[in-house]
Amino acid sequence: SSSLCFKAMSEGRALIWRRTVDRVSSESMQRLEIKTGMYAPMIWQDRALGALCVDNATRDCLFTDDELQFLVAVASYAAMAVANYRLSEAP
Questions:
Q1: What Cα–Cα distance (Å) separates residue 51 from each residue in 21, 72, 80?
Q2: Other CB atoms within 10 A of residue 20 CB
Q3: Adjacent-strand bridge partners of 38
């Protein structure tokens, strides 16, 4: 869901979404029958460069805080890699 990605980016924090708790879902989430998801912003120097999303259509149980913290760590590394790439491509 792009709206949940934008929420994570604008708030600067990771979140866990579950269809049965958070009734908000996009057309694609409904079509793909996504049941739960995690969203983590890719933050570099206090700026959100994007967001990582992991979703699951077969797992009805909520993602754990440990899984969310792992996604946050991966998002931090990804943000560093994107920033480094942008610097290397700058004129």
A1: 22, 10, 13
A2: 9
A3: 16, 54
Q: Are 62 and 54 in contact (CB under 8 A)?
A: no
Other Cβ atoms within 10 Å of 72 Cβ, number: 18
pLDDT tens digits, one per residue of 42-83: 999 999 999 999 988 776 667 899 999 999 999 999 999 999
Q: Which of 1, 3, 15 is nearest to 75 (CA)?
A: 15
Q: pTM of this prediction?
A: 0.80
Q: How many CA atoms lie within 13 A of 68 on its CB side?
A: 16
